[in-house]
Hints:
alpha/beta, Lyase, Ornithine Decarboxylase, Chain A, domain 1, TIM Barrel, 9-stranded mixed β-sheet, 8-stranded parallel barrel, 12 helices, binds pyridoxal-5'-phosphate
Amino acid sequence: MLDSNYFHYTGTDLSCDDVRLEELAGIYGTPLFVTSARSLIESYQTFEDAFKALSHFTCYSVKANYNLSVIRTLAELGCGCDVNSGGELYRALQAGVSPEKIIFAGVGKNAEEISYALESGVLMLKAESLSELRAIDRIAGELGKTASVAIRINPNVTAETHPYITTGDSKEKFGIDEAELPVVFSLLSRLPNIRLVGLDMHIGSQIFDPEYFVAATVKLLALFEASKELGFSIEFLDIGGGFPVTYDPLKPATPIEHFAEKLIPMLQPFGVKVIFEPGRYLVANASILLTRILYKKSNHTGKQFFVVDAGMTELIRPALYQSHHEIQAVTFHDETVMADVVGPVCESSDFFARQREISAAEEGELLAVMSAGAYAAVMGSNYNGRLRPAEVLVNGSQVKLVRKRETLEQLIQNELSC
Ligand SMILES: *Cc1c(COP(=O)(O)O)cnc(C)c1O
């Protein structure tokens, strides 16, 4: 069982803070995302404590969970935002984040997004190619603005994680190749509407070994020194995100303090402001996906299935990354059974667990799919005509509905019948 202060049994009932999940399902229906505000706050404070000796600024990577209430909860603590698209910028602004606390990333920003970011007055845009630098310069010129820009470097460090979430390797599309940096620096002197304010990297996600960060930071610092010699005065070094969380109690994540221990002494002597962009770290274990068992069945091999009312349309991580999510019965049972927990979507990859020892819950009972705060609701879809679920935010005994369940009308609202 995944140990959590925020999702715990009171007697035989699984609760979030002071609220029984059974009660939430009764009021809001299932599937339902339940987020603990206190868990979000604790994760942010733990992160900040770990790096407090370093002059830094933490920007939550909102793509991990962009519900306005999640962004707002973190922003109220002083956290900034890292956004990846015009849509995410809009969300961050709507959540009340001030633009000078927002950094705009993304490997393929279009002209509209670049204008939107410049007009909003974000802290900086990250450029990921020479062509993009030229585009930013041209658009800033048209708007009569100077664009603050960070160059995203591809440090060619292959972090050991799932291949779909490694981003700092030369094989991948992200960032500007180190070898191209001299060209970038000389180009910048010919781009009058750009001010180089930062160097940036992001090597991947769910990275357990701090040494990958160390290796990439060594490269970033060398480039920082090189930029100084060329007369640039860079204010920000952005180390990116990728800090790990525990999904499986048998594979506990490296504590954030171990990353801080390695990175602080490396970065401190340079006297530059460090930016971190944690996404998953802040939100993954703050939410669960609450789902009801529709049917139990078995086949001739004796294999058992729990068919539940949530699926890959709400949480695609098992299908996409073969990720492990703990599954807990909302009413505790002593006995367990070996079963697959599967959703209603017409795909064989629509499962939450395979051959897992599951609490012997009955049809009609609730299961909690744990660690569903990051890359879950945001990757949701309407595939199979599914309606996006409701989301609630719990704080102590207080419950707020922060996203309504989608309706059938919303499913077709943008379609025109010709
Ligand atoms: C996705 C992303 C992050 C956050 O990654 P996590 O693994 O969720 O911490 C940070 N920075 C950039 C540029 C990203 O694309």
